[in-house]
Amino acid sequence: MTTGTCTIHRAEIWTTSRSRAHQTNPEDSFECFAAGALIVDEQGIIADVGDFAILKAQYTGAKVVDHPDSVIIPGFVDSHLHFPQLDMIGSHGKGLLDWLDHYTFPEEEKFASSAHAQQVARRLCQELKANGVTTAVMYSSAHHGATDALFAEAAKSGLRAIIGKVAMDRHCPASMQQPLESQIAHNEELMAKWHRSTPLLHYAITPRFAPACSPALLRALGDLKAAHPDVYVQSHHAETPEEVALVGSLFPEQKDYLSVYEDFGLLGAKTLLGHGIYTTKKERDILAETKTKIIHCPTSNLFLGSGLMHFESLRHAGVTVALGSDIGAGTSLSPFRTMTAAYKVQALHQNPHIPLHPVELLRLATLDGADALGLGHETGSLTKGKSADFVVLKPHRNRLLSERFKRESDPLIRLFATIIHGDDRLVDSAYVRGKCL
User: Fold this and answer.
1) Of residues 12, 72, 16, the one with CA closest to residue 427
2) Among the four residues 47, 91, 194, 239, which has the most C-beta atoms within 10 Å?
3) Tens digit of pLDDT for each residue in 243-259?
């Protein structure tokens, strides 16, 4: 076979190949090629993956790109983060509701300036790429210009991105509240301009969370979703007991927190709800029934002291869970830090002590994220026919990890050590559709 238009990326390769629904053992969904080859065609699609010696003989004439002392993994998916909060990471000492009043809203008010928003958007996209994130789901601020600037920067960066302008009309500064008609008009304008303007960009209707939205606003956003079923919805759910209690006082006619979103038509297969720490069994059943996704944000939950999400109860109910950095309460854009925190949180919940398997952690940050977004057919694993979205890691850049790789050949031991030791220093390059970002 002569395939001179293909590119062969040569390195050790790790990927997941089967969904959790079909697995009996996490290791069954793991594929490793110690001397691997990732074949990418000229359209940026994965043509093949396997052993280098075998595939090199089949793809004669293909350009070979060597990545010595490297591991190739699928591009990371960050399913929940706040664009205006990049420079808030590491702010001290508040719980969720105080955090919003003391840090978040004052920071987000600055994004009334489109010039400020453009500068931060550029840095955020650079940071995402530097951390190996190839797909990101992002909350903008309440400002039309800031959201437009973030979309423009995401388009230039080459990232896959799902972005939404935050909708609020109460329990936030007056400067960030807008008339209902303006909020819906801005959503429609941004949606028309950016949603699927390229194959990599999508729009998300974004009520910040129920306490910040009046019933009239939630009803209008639900109507907008019904009129545009192709777009996403993103919000927050059951992050702290105080938040749950506040929702109960603001929406006394609803049965529980999730019912607020359900009754206004905001649940569904393209709805992503951050946190879900304090879900009830009934809520978990409704999440599964409506195919609504929960995004686990463990570094944020630990940092704010919000609580420990019970991953197993959601999984047992059939709810799809993915991972998000949730900056700026989240403490890092590095998916390695998020995976490590998820491991620690779930280790505290397991009885007996059976924490998340390293393959589950990798899948949560890649294929499960893509599946949660309905993009599992496009990205999330290194599989023939999918987009060539991948990251090249250099384990030797961490001294302890480098020594571990010298002593250990077992890929599962290597994988877990990489998760624990990893950060942005390991990321050598990131690719989307075969293009180096």
Assistant:
1) 72
2) 239
3) 999 999 999 999 999 99
Triad 311, 333, 72: Cα angle to 5°:
85
User: Which residues face 272 on adjacent strands?
Assistant: 234, 293
- Residue range 256-304, pLDDT digits in tens: 999 999 999 999 999 999 999 999 999 999 999 999 999 999 999 999 9
**Cα atoms in the 13 Å half-sphere on the side-chain side of 3:** 16
Checking if the pLDDT of 17 tops 90, the result is no
CB under 8 Å to 86, separation ≥6 — which residues? 120, 123, 124, 127, 327, 328
Cβ atoms of 414 and 426 within 8 Å: the answer is: no
What's the pLDDT score for residue 357? 93
Beta strands in 143-296 (DSSP E): 160-164, 166-167, 201-207, 232-237, 271-275, 293-296
Q: Where are the beta strands (DSSP E) in 57-132?
A: 63-74, 76-82
145-154 in b/e burial notation, b at 16+ Cβ within 10 A? bbbbbbbbbb
Q: Which residues fall within 8 angstroms of residue 112, CB to CB, at 6 or more apart?
A: 143, 145, 146, 175
* β-strand pairing of 76-82 with 63-74: unpaired
- Which CATH superfamily does the domain covering 7-75+382-436 fall into? Urease, subunit C, domain 1 (2.30.40.10)
Could you state, in order of their start, the residue ranges of all structural domains in the chain? 7-75+382-436, 76-333
In CATH, what number does 76-333 get? 3.20.20.140
DSSP string, 119-185: HHHHHHHHHHHHTTEEEEEEE--S-HHHHHHHHHHHHHHT-EEEEE-EE--SSS-GGG---HHHHHH
| Local confidence band at 311 (pLDDT 50, 70, 90 cut-offs) | confident
pTM of the entire structure? 0.96
Would you give the distance in Å from CA 95 to the centre of its chain? 23
If one compares 19 and 410, the residue with the highest pLDDT of the two is 410
